[in-house]
Design goal:
Protein name (chains A, B): TetR family transcriptional regulator
InterPro entries (chains A, B): Homeodomain-like_sf, HTH-type_TetR-like_transc_reg, HTH_TetR, Tet_transcr_reg_TetR-rel_C_sf, TetR_C_16
CATH superfamily of the largest domain in chain A: Tetracycline Repressor, domain 2
GO molecular function, one term (chains A, B): transcription cis-regulatory region binding
Number of helices of chain A: 11
Shape of chain A: globular
Number of domains of chain A: 2
CATH topology of the largest domain in chain A: Tetracycline Repressor, domain 2
Helix content of chain A: 55-70%
Keywords (chains A, B): DNA-binding
CATH architecture of the largest domain in chain A: Orthogonal Bundle
Distance between the termini of chain A: 49 Å
CATH class of the largest domain in chain A: Mainly Alpha
Structural class of chain A: mainly alpha
Oligomer: homodimer
Chain lengths: ~200, ~200
């Protein structure tokens, strides 16, 4: 369903751009959850099927809009299918793998320009609503909506990426992925499903 | 020993600037540990006592050179005096207190411009050599130089600051400091003195 870049035909780029612009406006105004492909298509004046044809899922459309050089579907489905007691290690492994991949430098560039620009709403939306919302729903209980747990996970993940990719804190920056997963996985697992006291 | 800003006299700003410039060059070339006040004074053509008079300790000189709107001595001495089993909570409490203080927005601005500029060597040096090196020496053993432990601490601390101050991840961003310390302190304590396996 997802078109390759070479599948773009001249004359259609107008529709593509209109979809991206409508997506940008909708996501910014209403957030990820409250935005539908149908609504974006309506704003852009195209059929929803064309949005799916060009961009795939809503998450993939978000990634394209945010100019992320990655497809979030594969790591996300791995995370969502992981046994709940391996969720911490799995999140870390999948995210580190993406950042250590050839797409890594592009992600660093996007992150750096977001941080420099000061508008973090897209980064926040991507981390919390696109990536971690379905993880949250897996661990939420009637007593605990797990928002604080997910926020702690986000903080440790962002810290690993900043230490490893932006600041270059050794030996974290050059540590093989599996060693990092072994050292930090238990932290994420505690944040997700372990005892966390808030004072 | 530390002069207030109003204590600067006209005519002396030349020496002050020369000291800052010499410090910047020395720290960048040799790192924090291998740079002495004496060497900086020599480069600037002033007496070492004048460097101490203007800036205080080497750490305070570093903070002034990096244009950090804080004095690292108070939080650092609190951290260094904390019982080793309370080190994690103490580091978190002291650092969060500084970032939540009136100096916080200035620190965010410095961090943002460092991240945007892409030269993270000063940030790295401040975190690892100025703040955490003496913590490392407290926990190092003949078998473990504790560099990886300190790197993990740095990653979680940076992640908390990015989540709380740059990205605005809720509920981390508006959580009272003591709740954050209760939730994240055990992570830092494990990284410092607990079991950490690297695969």
């Amino acid at each position: 369903m997802r078109p390759s870049r070479s599948g773009r035909r001249p004359g259609r780029s107008g529709a593509r751009e209109a979809i991206l612009e409508a997506a940008r406006a909708r996501f910014a105004r209403n957030g990820f959850d409250q935005t539908s492909i149908r609504a974006i298509a309506g704003d852009a004046g195209v059929d929803p099927a064309l949005v799916h044809h060009y961009f795939g899922t809503k998450r993939q459309l978000f990634a394209a809009m945010a100019q992320l050089p990655i497809d979030p579907e594969k790591p996300l489905s791995t995370i969502l299918e992981a046994p709940i007691e391996q969720l911490g290690a799995t999140i870390l492994r999948e995210v580190v793998e993406v950042w250590d991949s050839p797409a890594g430098p592009g992600l660093v560039a996007v992150l750096r320009s977001m941080l420099a620009g000061g508008d973090m709403s897209m980064a926040r939306m991507f981390i919390l609503e696109v990536v971690l919302e379905r993880v949250r729903l897996r661990i939420a209980t009637p007593e605990d909506d797990a928002r604080a747990r997910i926020g702690l996970v986000a903080s440790q993940m962002m810290g690993i990426l900043v230490a490893r990719k932006l600041v270059g804190v050794e030996p974290i920056a050059s540590m093989p992925g599996p060693e990092l997963v072994a050292a930090v996985g238990p932290t994420l697992q505690r944040y997700l499903t372990g005892p966390v006291e808030f004072g």
